[in-house]
Amino acid sequence: MSDDPDVGGEPELVVRCAECGNTYPAQRGDDGGFRPIGTAAGTCSCGSSEFEQV
Ligand SMILES: [Zn+2]
Questions:
Q1: What is the pLDDT of residue 18?
Q2: How far is the CA of 21 from the centre of ligand 1 (A)?
């Protein structure tokens, strides 16, 4: 009913930035990587795009 595919949907897991340690709710991407929710272009605020699951 309230699906909003452009915004990323429900977070499935939590990831931590490999560089600065910030954590984000995230989804698993189609390529098997992580897609943090609420960040620009799927990168951390520090600019890193490497995340590990918490
Ligand atoms: Zn970071």
A1: 96
A2: 6
Average pLDDT for residues 22-34, to the nearest whole number? 88
Q: Give residue 17's pLDDT band: very low, low, confident or very high (50, 70, 90).
A: very high
Q: How far is the CA of 37 from the centre of ligand 1 (A)?
A: 14
Q: How far is the CA of 3 from the centre of ligand 1 (A)?
A: 29
Sign of CA dihedral 12, 53, 5, 2: positive
